Amino acid sequence: MSRIPESVVGDAYTSAESWKTLESLVAVRNRMAGQEGEAEGARVVADAFERAGAREVEINEFEIPGWWRGSSSLAVGGETLEATHEVIALPGTPSGEVTGELVDVGYGLPEDFEQRDLDGKIAMASSETPESRDRWIHRMEKYAGAADAGAVGFVFRNHVEGCLPPTGEVGYHNRPGPIPAVGVSAEVGARLRRESEGESATLSVDCRNEPANSRNVEAVVGPDTDEEVLVTAHVDAHDVSEGANDNGAGSALVAEIGRLLGRVELDTRVRLVTFGSEEIGLYGAYHWAETHDLDSVRCVVNIDGAGNSSNLGVGTNGFEELGEAFAEVTDDLRVPLSTHEGISPHGDQWAFVQEGVPAVMAYSRSEGSGRGWGHTHADTLDKLDIRDLRELAVLLTNVVVALAEDGRDIPHKSREEIRDEIDEGYVEELKIGGRWPYEE
Which of 8, 254, 260, 322 could cysteine-pair with 4, CB 3.0–4.6 Å? Predict the structure, then answer.
């Protein structure tokens, strides 16, 4: 049984509006945080909110530490990699040139750094996290582990095949990072391990770390109530790709959910928000959380990594009531749901979770480990299908209607409760990245 009328469901399954929004976003090409493309992406979303019939549409600017990509190269064993399809800088890295022995540290786990002598060397680590670990190990943790072990440079090798070097933030709230860092493809990484490990290598990065402005876009639908449900995504994307799945699809879904909710009788106001600067430190979400009354936020549904399939997944961050609402909807509609219950500091929902506000990340469940095409040149529109967006729009609109129901009790937690529930490994990662929000 659907919580939205059949006519609205029929509209969702026949409309191309979400796909048109997504096409407009990927046409921008470069939506890197703080750059003109992100501003253009924000305008695309604002236009979509207007077309959806939402009210109070606005774009709000805030300052961030910007980063601009220059050229990068890695020279080792008589070979110099310098084309963007071979080696790319990781945002937050400083400029500089370093020389040292190339040493592969496998997965880049804490124990891997303890077992190798990295002083004055260039460390190379895989993007993969082994299944034996109970949590995902972020690239920033591996980068910091290399720097702390005395490495002078860092090479991040993809574990996903396809000749795709990965990018991704390493500086976070301690920008710029301490040592130059680049990404290489799985194939280049395998060749370096096979032919060049132990040889002298020279890593060179040219980039700019300068202040810039980013933007959040928001609008509202439903009645004017004291309490509201937030539906969010991030509009920024890494400059090496179209950012179709990460996270153009999420932004398009927020606008589409708003359009469908405009045809539904809601009990509680719903605020639509697309954040800027998620990829470089969640700055947009932090800015929103710090400038609004969080007591008025009933809960947050953050959409990130949704669109590469119609199989809905949700990370509940320990908020059982939110997980129950997702389960109710998917049970009623007889579709599968994948649930992860632990707290994760990755994604814009974290800016709310850390304050005790109930918040989830909604995503698509797919096969394989890691991001797949995400954070590479291959995150392009052709990987997605309008049918998946339509299915997800219907599911998530039903979820939002359920969460907005009168009498739906979704209690907040204290900051202390959240602090005590965070996995020790994530505690360490947050401290390394300058994002630990609690006093010692």
Answer: 8
**What are the strands, taking DSSP E only, across 279-367?**
297-303, 312-315, 337-340, 359-364
324 belongs to a structural domain: yes
Sign for the CA dihedral angle at 14, 15, 21, 27 comes to positive
Residue 250: give its domain's CATH number.
Answer: 3.40.630.10
Which among 145, 178, 210 is the end of a domain? 210
Q: Read off the pTM.
A: 0.96
* Whether residue 35 has pLDDT greater than 70: yes
Question: Using 50, 70 and 90 to split pLDDT, how confident is the model at 392?
Answer: very high
Question: 96 forms bridges with which residues in the sheet?
Answer: 205
Asked if residue 117 and residue 52 are part of one domain, the reply reads no
pLDDT in tens, 311-367: 999 999 999 999 999 999 999 999 999 999 999 999 999 999 999 999 999 999 876
Q: What angle do CA 327, 333, 337 make, to 5 degrees?
A: 40
> In the 8-state DSSP scheme, what is residue 424?
H
* Mean pLDDT, the chain, whole residue set: 95
Tell me, yes or no, whether 440 lies in a domain. Answer: no
Q: Give the percent of the chain with pLDDT over 90.
A: 91
Please name every residue paired with 300 in a beta bridge, in sequence order, or none if there are none. 230, 359
Q: How many domains does the chain have?
A: 2
Whichever domain contains 119, its CATH number is: 3.50.30.30
**Does residue 437 lie within any of the structural domains?**
no
> Tell me, what DSSP letter sits at residue 298?
E
Classified as helix, coil or strand, 61 is strand
Domain boundary among 210, 232, 252: 210
pLDDT tier for residue 439 given thresholds of 50, 70 and 90: confident
DSSP label at 35?
S
Q: Which of 352, 218, 231, 215 is nearest to 276 (CA)?
A: 215
Is 75 part of a structural domain of the chain? yes
**Averaged pLDDT for residues 87-108:** 97
In which domain, by residue range, is 349 found?
6-65+212-432
Angle, CA of 97, 98 and 99, to the nearest 5°: 135
